């Protein structure tokens, strides 16, 4: 049950409207999360800018896998639905890879190192071990890449926390908990 009221598109603050319209055009509909988020132009536009910048980080399969791992740790059912959908449709990850990412892994070794590292960052609140940094570096990630992984963890956590607080009506397919699959 939603713990907030979504607003109608004509009630969106003027400063949020261009960003929301761009998402709607790109996605093909207006997700409930964005209608609520748009009520704060400052927060919504800052998030959209971060999302746009980080869409150039790493590759789409790694980004989506990190989103799945972080959302699983944070227990965000809304984001798990979104990321499972986008991972399958945009990143072209097969269903078994989506489940694996939710559990903090990937079949491709380099992506696996990034996803494991991201999961450790969120689970430990950034208190990773030296061995964790060594593992992601040994997999071929640069310092810039590691910073991007941390930024992705933070960005996905922001939407996880936002969606967990407001518990929007789900407008993406609902997924089962990874532990029950």
UniProtKB/TrEMBL annotation:
The lineage of its organism: Bacteria, Pseudomonadati, Pseudomonadota, Gammaproteobacteria, Lysobacterales. InterPro entries: AhpD-like, AhpD_core, CMD-like. This is Carboxymuconolactone decarboxylase family protein. It comes from the Bacteria. Signal peptide: none annotated. Residues 41-103 form the Carboxymuconolactone decarboxylase-like domain. One of its GO terms (molecular function) is peroxiredoxin activity. It comes from Luteibacter yeojuensis.
């Amino acid at each position: 049950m939603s713990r907030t009221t979504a607003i109608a598109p004509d009630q969106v603050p003027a400063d949020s409207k261009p960003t929301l319209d761009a998402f709607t055009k790109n996605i093909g509909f207006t997700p409930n999360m964005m209608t609520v988020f748009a009520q704060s132009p400052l927060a919504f536009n800052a998030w959209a800018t971060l999302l746009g910048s980080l869409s150039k980080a790493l590759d789409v399969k790694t980004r989506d896998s990190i989103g799945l791992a972080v959302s699983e740790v944070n227990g965000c059912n809304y984001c798990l639905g979104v990321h499972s959908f986008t991972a399958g449709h945009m990143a072209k990850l097969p269903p078994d890879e989506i489940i694996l990412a939710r559990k903090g892994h990937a079949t491709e070794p380099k992506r696996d190192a990034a996803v494991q590292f991201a999961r450790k960052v969120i689970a430990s609140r950034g208190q990773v071990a030296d061995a964790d940094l060594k593992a992601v570096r040994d997999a071929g990630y640069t310092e810039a890449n590691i910073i991007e992984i941390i930024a992705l963890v933070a960005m996905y956590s922001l939407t996880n926390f936002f969606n967990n607080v407001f518990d929007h009506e789900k407008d993406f397919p609902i997924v089962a908990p990874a532990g029950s699959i």
